[in-house]
Amino acid sequence: MKHDISLNVNGEIYNISVESDTLLLDAIRNHLNLTGTKDGCRAGECGACTVIMDGKPVNSCMVLAVEAEGSVITTIEGLNNGEELHPIQKAFVEEGAVQCGFCTPGMVMSAKGLLDKNPSPNTKDIRKAIRGNVCRCTGYKKIEKAILHAAEMINEDKKLD
Amino acid sequence: MSRTSMIGKNMPRIDAVQKATGQTKYLPDMNFPGMLYGKILRSTEKHAVIRKIDVTRARELPGVRAVITGKDIPELLYSFDQTVADKEILCKDKVRFLGDEVAAVAADTEEIAEKALKLIEVEYEPLLTVFDPEEALQDDAVLVHEEKNSNVAIKVVKDFGDVEKGFEESDYIFEDRIVTSRQAHCCLETRGCIAQYHTDGKVTIWGPTQIPHRWRKQVADATGIDRGKINIINTPTGGAFGSRVVMDTKIPIAVYLSKFTKRPVKMVNSREDEFNVSRTRYPFIVYLKTGVTKDGKILAKQARVIADNGAYCDEGAAVLGFAGVFYSVLYDAPNVSFHGDCIYTNNQPCTAFRGFGNPQMHYAFEIHLDRIAKELGIEPKELRLRNANKEGAAKATKANINTCTFNECIEEATKLTQWDKKYLEFKEENKGKEVKKGIGMATMLHTGFTTRFFGFNATDTFIKLSDDGIVSVITPIIEMGQGSSTGVAQIVAEALGVKMDDIRIINTDTDITPYDLGAYGSRHTVVCGHAAMDAALKAKEELLVAASEMFNCDAEELDCINGELFFKNDLNKPLATVGEVTEFTAFKLGRLISGRGRFVDELAPRGLVDEGYSIYIPTYSFGCQIAEVEVDTLTGEVKVEKITAVVDNGRTLNPILAEGQMEGAIAQGMGYALTEELKIENGRVVNNSFTDYKIMHAEDLPEIEVKFVESGDPFGPYGVKGIGECGLVPTAGAITNAVYNATGVLVGELPIKPEKILLGLEEENR
């Protein structure tokens, strides 16, 4: 059955028509054409499709599109405004946290979910926050460092404000 | 400014910003107008004769644009190595494993394609099956390929000296049977492709590949289409690790679906497909026999490898080749024998995986060596040093070992970990404790860049400077996450004297890039980097000549550094930017600036006919890893506390990227040691998800310390050696030896799961 829904993604409203069983992941990728959110397993096991929904990181393959109506969603495309990188993205670039890059958008969104709640995490907090995100390339060390570095940058920016 | 300002510097990856912002378009993100979705009907039998395939109902389903079976396409057999070609794109008469390709559908949507698959009716007549490679060697075993006279698919035999004589002269002989697991690549991006068959007979294929130029040949072999008509466009790669060396069968199928529909066809694996039917690391059964003197000198070593080939041939020859050469050359023994066979079974086939057969052999021999050390009462480090290779030709194999840093790597690793102290202290500390500490080492010998297996090992690179000074590097470098495209850009920036930001790496497709074997065997940064350096130096010559005309001086008086021209004797005062010189060259001199570079490996053509190992490996890489663990003797659980990795990388091109290669490889090696095993029960994969097939997560990883020994390599650009694979090679051996050190239990079967350790402890207590 088709449902006409309206999704709030990255501050924009999208009116789309989806099936009852359309995943939020597929709505984002195929209906909104926002392909930064990656499809890695469709079973909630790899975290590549992580988006922020109402302030929390979620696997968008574990949410139905119709369930997401009324929620505020941020995808990787909504993280940076214009040309300026978000500090998490900047830290990922600088710390060598990116290799093949396929897990990166999900990893960055999980980091965002963490830092929004806990601005000064320790390594243990970071590992817990990305426990649902699989990376086959990096061995996670540079990712952990990047998230620590991002937290520092964000805290510095806040001080300046 | 230093002459090597770019080499050894932490430059951010050139593709990192696009990847971190989600802008990089991988194959699954691409869609073309008119595109159809392809799906494969796979065999539901493990070994059977196909009696009948009826596609009538599938063809009638609205939205279905083509349904094809083996009858619709040329009757051809293919393999990565065409001398052992044994696979049909679509099985016509017989299937040989659960998941073998039987028919394919192209439809308007994935859902319609899936529905159509369910409407295809296939009648099978089941045959006897064989899943264990040792059983497959028995006289009464069913033949997986009935036209062959045995299940032996590929054989590699290398004998040096006289092992029997060596065993006779030995004081002790040690024998072990060691088993390694079936490891899945688990790339985050699953395998996929888009194919377009054009009406003029040309074919374009988009997909993540490690070896685009050899894919052309593979597609041609599999489809019968003229290789010259095929262009492979390599899309950004979401992980590779060897899984994208051999063309996936989906590619020729997509080509034919496109030919029949005249539309682009996209096919992408589900995660389940990826586990159920995609090719994996070759599992080995290794029989080792080693003869030593009482003071630990190895006089003879013999390995018999039985590898599960699966139902079809793939990279078996290369995997046994790597296994053979590194087993034979690691430690300088006078008599060495390696016999390896890939054996057909009704399991899913195997393929290349980071290190080819070397991680298997290192695990086997390094744990075997620790048993020998314990039984002879010689400390493991000391036993290794007594058998170490030296620079020059190895005793038995005559392998030419240059820049030998074996001892240096061991010494450095033991120093970093305080090995000498811990090796003795842990034993004391462990007395009476349930949780026991252990420390274990494994040394590492790998290639510094590939083998000469193909009889060719070179490439070219073209560099052109635009009128505004932008430098385009036309190179076959493949970027699969390892950072080689950044490495090549750094090498060009250094050699030409330009800014990283002004470099564009053009590596998009086989119509454009020079012929090259591809990114595997830790070769690409070295081979492509070398050619790029040569091209950059040639372009620099032209640039300096043009600049000399601009400044009315001799070209020899000038230099170009970091995007600016200087008089060599006054490096503080820039004369002009590169862009100003290229603009002058274009509009005042009426010409352009470019350079063609080459990497030539003159010995490579002899690699094909080389019977021994004298020139098989151009240069060797050495290393040593030490694992520190805690083992709970009540549960058998292993907690890795720290991995210390020392590796000879020739010279570090980019420390942060080099460390990233090592850390990622060690994480895969830890998975190989502790958890990763694709379990096939009676021909069926039983753990086809990330929940059931456990790879390392962030919380599983210990502290990792990486240290580089920089030997400088005569082949590598600026002395660089490849390090893509060497991080994984010794890890499983080091961890297993650490557990042996802690508990006295040596687990000779990967992964070393708690139940195996408990079983070993029980046997010890008996």
List the keywords.
heterodimer; A: 161 residues; alpha+beta; 5-stranded mixed beta sheet; 5 helices; 5 strands; B: 766 residues; Aldehyde Oxidoreductase, domain 4; Aldehyde Oxidoreductase, domain 3; 7-stranded mixed beta sheet; 20 helices; 30 strands; 25% strand
Chain-wise SSE layout:
The complex is a heterodimer of chains A (161) and B (766).
Chain A: E1 2-9, E2 12-19, H1 24-31, E3 50-53, E4 56-59, E5 72-74, H2 87-94, H3 104-117, H4 123-129, H5 141-160
Helix pairs in contact in A: 2-5
Chain B: H1 16-20, E1 36-42, E2 48-54, H2 56-60, E3 64-69, E4 94-95, E5 101-107, H3 110-118, E6 121-126, H4 133-136, E7 152-160, H5 163-169, E8 172-179, E9 192-197, E10 203-207, H6 212-223, E11 230-234, H7 250-261, E12 265-268, H8 271-276, E13 284-292, E14 298-310, H9 316-329, E15 335-344, H10 358-376, H11 380-386, E16 392-393, E17 400-401, H12 406-417, H13 419-430, E18 435-447, E19 459-465, E20 471-474, H14 484-497, E21 503-506, H15 524-551, E22 558-561, E23 564-567, E24 576-577, H16 578-587, E25 593-599, H17 604-607, E26 620-632, E27 638-648, H18 655-674, E28 680-681, E29 684-685, E30 703-709, H19 731-743, H20 754-765
Helix pairs in contact in B: 9-10, 10-19, 14-15, 15-16, 18-19
